Amino acid sequence: MKLRISTTLKTGLIGVVLAACNVGSGTQPQIAATPDMGDGDQTVVTQVVAQPAPPPPPPLVYSWDTEFSGFLSPPIEVRRMARDDCLSAGYEIATVETLALEANIATVTFICRGDFE
Fold this sequence. Notes:
This protein has about 120 residues and is of the alpha+beta class. The protein is about 30% helix and about 20% strand. It has a domain at about 60-115. It is built from two helices and three strands. It has a three-stranded antiparallel β-sheet with strand order 1-3-2. The protein is elongated. The relative contact order is 0.14.
């Protein structure tokens, strides 16, 4: 009886070990062979139609007398003129690019940003 239990346990243990070693064999990816299309050129060329680039925004340069103020910012009138010029060119906003000061005369250059129509 002891021999039968020992043999059964050994057989079961060998079966478990073999099953554990064989677990990964069913999960391997299937590799499908693709048929050879011959030596002909199979390159597909797509033609891209280039959109015309929008024209560069207009340079917007304005000057004003600062009257020796301690705070330097474009006056509201200058900012409104720059915004209106950008809107008429198809842009959304005007942003200060450079600001120069010579004596009491300030010169500002605006750039236009935003969607171009």
